[in-house]
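Q: Could you write out the predicted structure for this multi-component system? I'm mainly interested in how the pieces pack against one another.
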Amino acid sequence: MPPLDWAALAPMVAVAATGLVLLVADLLTPRERRGPLAWIPLLGFGAAAALSVRLWGGGVRGVAGMLVVDDTACFFYGLFAVIGILTVLISVPYIRREGIQFAEYYVLLTFAVLGMMVMASSADLLMFFLGLETLSVALYVLAGFLRQRVTSNESGLKYLLLGAFSSAFLLYGVAFLYGATGSTNLEAIQAALVSRSDSGPLPAVGVGLILVGLAFKVAAVPFHMWAPDVYEGAPTSVTAFMIAGTKAAAFAGFLRVTAVAGTSLQGAWPEVLWILAALTMGVGNVAAVAQRNLKRMLAYSGIAHAGYLLVALVAGSPLGTAGLLFYLLAYAFMTVGAFAVLIALGRRGEENLTLEAWAGMGTRRPLFALSMAIFMFSLAGLPPTAGFMAKVYVFSAAVEAGYIGLAILGVLCSVVSAFFYLRVVVVMYMQELAAEPAVVLLSPTTALATLLSVAGTLYFGLFPSRAWEVAVRSVQGLAGMGG
Amino acid sequence: MPGLPLLSLLTFLPAGGAALLLLLPRERVRLLRALALAVLAVDFLLALRLYFGFDPAEAGLQFVEEAPWIPRLGIQYLLGVDGISLPLILLTAFLGLVVAAASLPWIQARVKEYCICLLLLQTGMLGVFVALDLILFYIFWEAMLIPMYFLIGIWGGPRRIYATIKFFLFTMAGSVLMLLAIFALYFKARAALPGPTFALPSLLGVALGPEEQTWLFLAFAVAFAIKVPMVPFHTWLPDAHVEAPTGGSVILAGILLKMGTYGFLRFALPLFPDATRTFIPLVAWLAIAGILYGALVALAQADVKSMVAYSSVSHLGFVMLGIFALNVQAVSGALLQMVNHGLSTGALFLLVGMLYERRHTRMLEDFGGLFRVIPVFGGVLLVIALSSIGLPGLNGFVGEFLILAGTFRFWWPYAVLGAAGVVLGAWYMLSMVQQVLFGPVRHEANRTLLDLTLAERCVLAPILLLVVWIGVYPAPFLHPSEASVKALLARVEQGAAAVAPAAGGVDPRAYGRPAPAPRVEGARVAPGETQARVTGGER
């Protein structure tokens, strides 16, 4: 067995070590002094981000045939670390307020990030499955972390049941591919598929089942039924993490299987994705219009954005793939930012998440309201925010690849989405103050997370060039991108 | 003045002012107002400097600023001015200042936010008129919606939320399709030109087939037609104009609508010349429908503000008719009429606002006989109404005359139908004036009205001055545009033939560069000479 390439593994090791340190630190700290434990994951994610920046641009490095650490993987490591940091920042006041301040929360979060990193750099379907399960098991617990609340229990249970279901689909698909090609290694599968053109329907069935599994994870319509309830019931900080992080990881998985999928399904792969993208954008946005609860509205918005991201996959070009990466980055800032404001202005028990409770927020909490407005404009895809630039990349890729119809549908959906995002702004700025102002405990970490998200949303909107350059170079070596 | 990025300064000064205002405490109302006003005043001075530095003989772009922005995709920070955008920039800078001066004293609630919105709006509007990279243009075009949305939604009338969302969604729905058309154009150009680019001067060098032109033209035209607004895309306008606060209405009517007509002149016509000529009948008939329909509906309004709003539909129909008559007379007239409409309709909204501040009603039946009570107000209203009708000696006449004369040369039935709109215009405007100013004083409350204050007179005086000046001596306003209009028309006339040699590898950016010093060929400068340089085609 060749020696392991520890340098390539460094970001993952950093995150794994963080989780272990947290477990030990939990034992050594008395119950009432566990607040400062949040520093540990912050430092761990920071270290992982720094290590992946150093690794980036260093070429493709395989680890035991199971993992591949290339620029794409490094980009996702960095993205996951950023999402992790933002999540920890918004979690600190939230879990204190809701009475769930346990170190296990951070431990699970850290291992979830580890699972995402494994998914993003898997060279083998089994490794991918391992990463997915690490992520999912952590999230099953996190979703139900508010033990005393029924909705959270429901969320955890629902996610567990449907998640297990989707994992089974995925595993079944892996088995089919193994049966057809005799390997679970993506490169070997690809080579086998290319050399034997008459391998029958098995590879197509296998890829189809894997697609179902992934579509469950990104909450693509019609595999989205679990998403609104799970997102709404889970602790708000966990919802933010799931919407931004899990989605990014699942799309990283999509990128890894693209080459194999393209070969086994031939021309049908983009067509299948086309239908998924169209349904997801349409249903996600239209259903979001009917929501009066902000958290549930953001849940549907999360579904809708998965649709835009699928458009990038449909294009299947270097432009589209780089667009996907940029979109995920921009989306992380704007959506986690929106959840940060939800947490900052919410109260214990999340009583005031209805639109009505936000009336007059523009005068009551001007800075948070302004931030929320910026996130809403960005989610709606209006310039000069990151959300606009992300849509420029994704939809231009669709036009370039000739999917004009899908692009038209996409931009019209974003007009629909402007309606419900703007409604939040209307309520905050254009309606009278609600009866009694909510007592809000300001937390410096939420404020910091909001500030960082606003900065990211505006920076990537006004000066997208550097991030775009990084995204373009990150996907250059990716297999199956045709360039 | 080499080295001074005048256009960037002009465009971003208000945004800088907004950032500064953001840091000031909201209680310092007077300081906030003064600062916003000062920023807009300086901005207007910059616009004047632009005017005096502008070379009217040059048909191409001047004051060009370019810098890479997203080099990988060829998105540039590219600004420039020519004779088509210059009058609109001046109008924007002027009206922005006037609006701030007139409306700031009326705003009592959330002064800080109001000032910031006005300033950001100013940056957005100026940006639309100076941006020459299509993505940059689109960003200003869309971003400008946000402050307007707040202006209507926060400080507007009772149905403000409905109006502002309708305004926003209508405009956005039109523009997203334009964004896709921009992409399609970009990918088409990427195949034809040496490098990827969104820059208008370079894109002008791409030859497009008739079918491509048709689809792309339609996508652009819908976006612009909604903004103009042309019938049948006008339904957002009455709501937005009536519900907006006075300042918002003035800006909406005075400047925002011009962004649509400007879009046609700047992008749709030169990029898709063949499609433009194909669609002349459709656009002309819609324009005429707008002229007549807007005028007839205006006639039926009981609310002065909605009458003025519908009159905009009618007036902008004239502008569209002039643009699509495609001759120098009509297009110059359309350009001038854009400025005229900004001045007279802007002033009308201001006057309605002043009246509303005094009486808190805008219904025609609540007034009557005001001329005797408040003569100065009455006099101003009369002059402005006459200017809007197109009385000779005032600004509206010059514009409408040029448009109708040019249209007559193009195809006389259009001109005849358009002229019917002028008659209807006189009808609704004069009957409004009659009901408000003349006759007996029917309501006791009207007897005690106060006449225009000194501040209000100061706000209206410059508008009146311009109204008369343009009416009597329009040359300074027409002259700078002439060369650019001629170049534009030459391009539309040549159509695809003009762009055919583009693949030859000439630098298409020559369009934006100032001409080399010895312009000896002055004697034989044909219309379209600059455009020929764009494409490198020797005609």
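A: Regarding packing and overall arrangement: Residues 394 and 450 of chain A are 26 Å apart (CA to CA).
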